[in-house]
Amino acid sequence: MMDFRLELVLLPVADVDRAKAFYAEQLGWSVKVDHQPNDEFRVVQMDPPGSACSVSFGVGIGDPDRDPVQGTHLVVADIVAARGLLVDRGVDVSEIRHMAKEGWRPGADPDHRDYVSFADFADPDGNTWVLQEVGHPAGTRDAGQPRGGRQLPEDWDASYDETPPWDIGRAQAPLVALADSGALDGRVLDLGCGTGEHALLAAAFGSTATGVDIAPTAIEQARAKALERGLDARFLARDALEIDDLGETFDVVLDSGFFHVLPDDARPRLRDMLRAVLSPGGTYYLLCFSDRVPGDDGPRRIARNEITDLFDGHGFDVVNIAEAGIEATFLDVPVPAWLATIVRHRT
């Protein structure tokens, strides 16, 4: 399917300099373009922080007399903090409200559920904006929201008849950063390794690397890459959940996209397997889709509390869960993800 990416929202404004000052100085947006070749044409393009879509206004573009654009949404992780920042900059922002079963209620949603808390403001020309809270660190997902898990492959090996979307031909950036920091040290196991990029990353940094995947075709490709790159890494075609049958232990376990394709009832088995294969004090690095990913096709969307509930107090400490991104072959920007650092207890 062809991508149709939203690139630009064109705003009608009466005074370009006034609009530019509002968006740059009061909202804190960056000026991407301000081009004026003559008195009859000027284009200003502004980027909201963290957004892949820009807004534009100017002279000689669009109809300046058309009605203002209404209700464009800006997604923020903490609506209370976002509103406070704008108010401190002199922006007239409405009070926060949230939708409850009884209807609209004042303030942010107490549970910080996604998509239910809002606040509004307008620019000097009447173009209105809506702040919407999504992905608050303390948030919980509504049971009715999609969790993903639809249309996952029934035959993982057949996925490699063509290049699957997770096989980007290089290691994921968050795991490269771990390698650069020296975190991939000693004996490293890569769960659901696919064509081996993360096991090969560990091998390139001098670690003793093993990759395991249920797809024999992926393992063949991983072995071919190791030979081509002159790297010493072992690749095993077997179910990663049964890797404890090897009777071996590892200092580091990597998981890039394995956890988020497991059904819920397989997670305790994963935890038991990790307890068996991780050396005391060893670290499990988990990179998975977060619950900020819209839709429900593909991998499950994972909330922070799902990670902590599974591991904390069950032989592991969840040391950190950081916002990250997962790249895919069909996207130009990374998918919102979590990178969790989980350490096995020493006793």
What about the largest sheet? 7 strands, mixed
What is the global morphology? Answer: elongated
CATH class category name of the largest domain:
Alpha Beta
Would you tell me which CATH topology of the largest domain applies? Rossmann fold
CA-to-CA gap between the ends? 51 Å
What is the second-level CATH architecture of the largest domain? Answer: 3-Layer(aba) Sandwich
DSSP helical segment count = 7
GO molecular function: lyase activity; methyltransferase activity
Keywords: Lyase, Methyltransferase, S-adenosyl-L-methionine, Transferase
Domain VOC: 5-134
Protein name: Putative lyase
Describe this structure as you would to a colleague:
The protein is an alpha/beta fold and 347 residues long. The relative contact order is 0.10. Helix content is 20%, strand content 31%. The protein has 3 domains: 1-66, 2,3-Dihydroxybiphenyl 1,2-Dioxygenase, domain 1, CATH 3.10.180.10; 72-120 and 130-136, no CATH class; 157-344, Vaccinia Virus protein VP39 (Rossmann fold, 3-Layer(aba) Sandwich). The chain is elongated and about 70 Å long. Mean pLDDT is 91; it is low at 141-146. It has helices spanning 16-26, 79-88, 173-180, 197-204, 216-229, 267-277, 304-311; strands at 8-10, 30-38, 41-47, 54-59, 72-76, 97-100, 103-106, 117-122, 128-133, 187-191, 208-213, 233-237, 250-256, 278-289, 316-326, 335-344. The chain has a 7-stranded mixed β-sheet, with helices on both faces. The chain is built from 7 helices and 16 strands.
Features:
7 helices, 5-stranded mixed beta sheet, single chain, 2,3-Dihydroxybiphenyl 1,2-Dioxygenase, domain 1, 347 residues, Rossmann fold, alpha/beta, 16 strands, 3 domains, 7-stranded mixed beta sheet, 20% helix
